[in-house]
Amino acid sequence: MTWWILPSLLGTVICLYVTRQTSMFMRPPAGQYMAAMGGMVAWWCAGQWASLLWQNLDYRYFIAQLQYVAIASVPVLWFSASLCYAGYDRIVRRWAPLIWIPPAVTILLAFTNSYHGQLWADFQPRTDSVGLDITYGPWFKVYVAYSYSAVTIGTVILANRIGFLPGHRRQFFYVISAPLMVLTLNLPFIFGVQLLPIDPTPLGFALASLILMSALKHKVFSVLPIARRHILDKLEDGVITIDDQGLIADANAAAKSLLGAEAIVFGKPLSDALPKGALATGTDHSETRLTDGRWLDIRMSPVQSLDGPAKGQIVLLRDITRDKHLQHTVEQTQHTLESLNSRLQAQAHTDDLTQLSNRRHLYQRMQEEWSRSERRSQPVSLILLDFDHFKKLNDSYGHQTGDQVLAQAATLIRQSIRPEDLASRHGGEELAVLLPDTALEDAVEAAQRIQQTISDHKYSSTDGQEFSLTISAGVACREPEDGSVDALVARADSALYHSKRTGRNAVSVAGHNDVQRLGADHKQISA
Predict the structure, then answer these.
(1) How far apart are CA 345 and CA 170, in angstroms?
(2) Which value, to the nearest 10 degrees, does the dihedral of the CA atoms of residues 240, 243, 249, 253 take?
(3) How far apart are CA 366 and CA 435, in angstroms?
(4) Using an 8 Å Cβ cutoff, are 252 and 241 in contact?
(5) What pLDDT is attached to residue 22?
(6) Which of 73, 90, 9 lies closest to 37 in space, CA to CA?
(7) Are 446 and 416 in contact (CB under 8 A)?
(8) How many CA atoms lie less than 13 Å away from 294 in the CB half-sphere?
(9) pLDDT of 216 strictly over 80
(10) Rg (CA), the chain
(11) Which residue from 192, 295, 387, 526 lies 20 to 30 Å from 338 (Cα-Cα)?
(12) Mean pLDDT across 506-518
């Protein structure tokens, strides 16, 4: 009898040590349940070796009753520890009263068994060994089914949460091997196969405790497992795995939400779940619009195996509908701002009455053309225009008619010059035309053409009277002696003054030292 005490005694010692280590190295509440389970297993093992010390039947019967405090509790404690370690603490807390009903009933029936025989129908010592001949009652079968279900469910949940993945394989091994060790020795005993003269279950727990002790020593239960599947299902982006033939092999919850659960069919081509042409050949990044108007960003990367070429691809799906709407809004806003800016810039550069460039814009362009003319040694010319007897026109027909004449003359000038030339209002009724890359002879020809066009045109007053008018012009072309834009403007203005002083209705040309009048005789304004 002394020999058979050793396994259960060893199991008691080991389980007490594991209980202490578990409380130190395993996080609560899982660690608390696991420590309690270790204590109960130590109780179970202690009950076995205590029952072997004497053959008195009443004594052994009482010890068996005490053992059922542990026997009934251990499966539920394993189940609770497994769920808490896997992250399901709330379930354990919420359903704890219900989970503990069968163990409580079992313990109660164990201490009252002599009245009903629900747990043991017969309990007798063997005459040829230290073991017991036990005939179990109806409730024993019920609780065996409950206990094995609790252990199996807890183990499966824990193993599934850890996953058989790199970095968690040792945890997976410990989680599976410890319960299997107990079940391997317990199941034959439950079904009447006597491998040993005594119940081998405490020996199984002793060996399982050694496995757990090794696990605690290596601190494999110090870190909570975060399974990759759990991470993937928590991602907001869709993740789909396809094989080398483009068939769907896996997909997370977000992918099913983005494309629809009915579209994600394992073994079917991914192209069937996306709009036609969404997976552009030869590219790992594309954007596509779904039939419901949503936009998806699709990125693909190969799955690189450890011992060979890439097989399959990971497809990352991201809903960029909001980004697209924001981008469209930004583009519209930018277009509107550019349009407004262009209009403001045009207004800043435009004379309100004539719609020609204003004086500021004229001088900006003159400075630009002056610099370009100096760099490239190309000519630039300027024409200044002033209406003859414009004050008399205002006095005769009114200022409103005078404004209409300016606006009409501006239109005639724009029609008479090149697109690259710049017509502007220089001040009052004085107009100017800047002619880039234009020599003096061509500038004179342009001035005479403008003069003729304005003189030939028939104007009308506000009361319907028709009249004509003439215009005087001064032309100057940049010369090497000109030091600045102001010198060019001064010579053109001098030529204009010469046309006015010598009879009007003429074009005068200003050289560096002289001014020459060209053109027709004076023409009076006629009604």
Answers:
(1) 73
(2) 0
(3) 9
(4) no
(5) 65
(6) 73
(7) yes
(8) 13
(9) no
(10) 51
(11) 295
(12) 83
Whether 435 and 380 have beta carbons less than 8 Å apart is answered as yes
| 42 conformational bin, left if phi > 0, alpha if psi -120 to 50, beta if neither | alpha
Provide long-range contacts, Cβ within 8 A and 24+ apart, for 50-59: 52/1, 52/4, 52/5, 52/8, 52/130, 52/198, 53/1, 53/5, 55/125, 57/123, 57/124, 57/125
Secondary element (H or E) of residue 299: strand 295-302
Amino acid code (one letter) for 154? G
**Which tokens in the block code for residue 216?**
């605690």
Distance between CA atoms of residues 85 and 12, nearest Å: 25
Provide the residue count of the chain: 527
Average confidence score pLDDT of the chain? 82
Higher pLDDT, 469 or 125: 469
For residue 357, give the DSSP letter. B
- Residue 103 identity: P
CB 354, CB 329: distance < 8 Å: no
| 460-489 as b/e: b if 16+ CB within 10 A | ebeeeeebebbbbbbbbbbeeebeebebbb
What φ, ψ does residue 86 adopt, rounded to 5°? -80, -5
